Amino acid sequence: MKAVERYNSETAREYAMRAITENIISIDLEPGQLISENEIASFLGVSRTPVRESIQELNKAALIEIYPQRGSYVSLIDSKYVEEAVFLRKVLDIAVIEEACNLATEDDIALLEENVALQEFYLKSNNTKKIFELDNEFHRMIYVAAKKEMIHNMRKNVMIHFDRVRTLSMLAVKDTKIVADHGIMLSAIKNKDKNKAKEIVEKHLDRYRVDQEELLRTYPQYFAKE
Amino acid sequence: MKAVERYNSETAREYAMRAITENIISIDLEPGQLISENEIASFLGVSRTPVRESIQELNKAALIEIYPQRGSYVSLIDSKYVEEAVFLRKVLDIAVIEEACNLATEDDIALLEENVALQEFYLKSNNTKKIFELDNEFHRMIYVAAKKEMIHNMRKNVMIHFDRVRTLSMLAVKDTKIVADHGIMLSAIKNKDKNKAKEIVEKHLDRYRVDQEELLRTYPQYFAKE
DNA sequence: ATCCCTTGACTTGTATACAAGATTGTATTA
DNA sequence: TAATACAATCTTGTATACAAGTCAAGGGAT
């Protein structure tokens, strides 16, 4: 488990949740790994209570398995859930960008433009981490423009299953194409061109296709056998 | 708050979560009502811990608002969230029944047939509560047949916002038509007729349209002013 | 009467104590 | 040697104690 800096503004619970989630996505908490509420609590410098609440929540999202009085484990990567995440993203993103074409205000578009400009900036300096953050934020802003913020929160949780796979196959995605896609999405929204928007989203999602067979060969211990 | 019987098999946490959620859906915990962790804990006969964990979870789902050191309230019905729920259900249910047409096994279909038979049975005796339960179960089984169980769990949580509205407008839905719809969905799945399936789902969802204007006049104190 | 301050009874946030079950290593016994 | 009983030590589940902040009521001073 890697250290995560604690913000001043956040409660112990929020900090624990964020730290554990980030570690799961980054595979610093490995799939299948045994975890202990006490260990994590002392590592993070908080008590068991906020850690426990976070673990319960991640258990609900099928990211941690709890065996009472025995122990808790980071869930193995289950291709069943990964496929559900991919399915959900595809169905929702297409429906939502269509709605964003209808509803996006000038303010929404201004924010999206600022985001894309930053993506282009960080693309030049090859700052993959920043691009990753801006990528997530870009898609969130589209949901907000479409007045679907609650749905986005839910999408984010489900997507963690896919995010882990993405972490393992780090280099599968070409940042250049991603950033270009975002520019096309933005102009489609500006022009209220729903068909163009849906078309580019579909193409965009296909770029994230990863070779699960290869990952399974490289990291067999991380995957659930069915 | 109404009493909810505790099953032997469930933990205090599961019981608290189920009891509070049921009370929110049934409006026995009223929108806007002040709630106290201590009060609920003693009413349910458990300690603050499991109650607190449940409240945190419902807060994440935007069903309870927490003001630290001041108090917690059942969220007012916010038409923004109700509309997100309706949107989500429509987008997902249509995509999922299409997938169910592809993937449903004979076992899946057998279970659906049994469910529809029971719906017809309880329709004769006008048992609205049973129909409500079978309705939920019917849709869940379609998600399971389409291998989208995790997505269904998520859908269920979002739908609580709509379920509250449904509770208030109890009599708006004609059970007869609902049960008939389910029969048509089932035969569309059996025949792998995706277009027919999507068409009837769309028609089906329209039946749940409620007159929010009227509800707002009848229960103004339950609704969030924007 | 009005303003201000204090006090006490609430709230949620967090830490800790205890309960109950699972597991493992060890010692004892057949 | 092998099997079994037992104790120590884990685990999570639950209850409780304490911390810190909010708010309203009431008393006293102006």
Written overview of the protein:
2 copies of one chain form a homodimer. With 226 residues, the first copy, chain A, is mainly alpha-helical. Chain A has 10 helices and 3 strands; from the N terminus they run αβααββααααααα. Chain A has helices at 12-25, 37-44, 48-60, 79-103, 106-124, 128-145, 149-168, 175-190, 194-206, 212-218, and strands spanning 34-35, 64-67, 71-74. In chain A, strand 2 (64-67) and strand 3 (71-74) form a beta hairpin. The radius of gyration of chain A is 19 Å and the shape is globular. The mean pLDDT of chain A is 92. At the A-B interface, helix 3, helix 4 and helix 7 of A face helix 3, helix 4 and helix 7 of B. The structure holds a DNA duplex (30 and 30 nucleotides).
Going by CATH, the homologous superfamily of the largest domain in chain A would be: GntR ligand-binding domain-like
CATH architecture title of the largest domain in chain A:
Up-down Bundle
In angstroms, what is the radius of gyration of chain A? 19 Å
Secondary structure category of chain A: mainly alpha
- Spatial order of the strands forming the largest sheet of chain A: 1-3-2
In one word, what is the shape of chain A? Answer: globular
Q: Which band does the percent of strand residues of chain A land in?
A: under 5%
In whole angstroms, how far apart are the ends of chain A?
27 Å
Q: Whole-number average pLDDT of chain A?
A: 92
**What's the count of strands of chain A?**
3
* Helical segment count of chain A: 10
The CATH first-level class of the largest domain in chain A comes to: Mainly Alpha
* Low-confidence parts of chain A: none
What sequence of helices (H) and strands (E) makes up the elements of chain A?
A: HEHHEEHHHHHHH
Provide the number of structural domains of chain A: 2
Instruction: Report the helical percentage of chain A.
Output: 55-70%
CATH fold-level assignment of the largest domain in chain A? Four Helix Bundle (Hemerythrin (Met), subunit A)
Which oligomerization state do the chains in this entry correspond to? homodimer
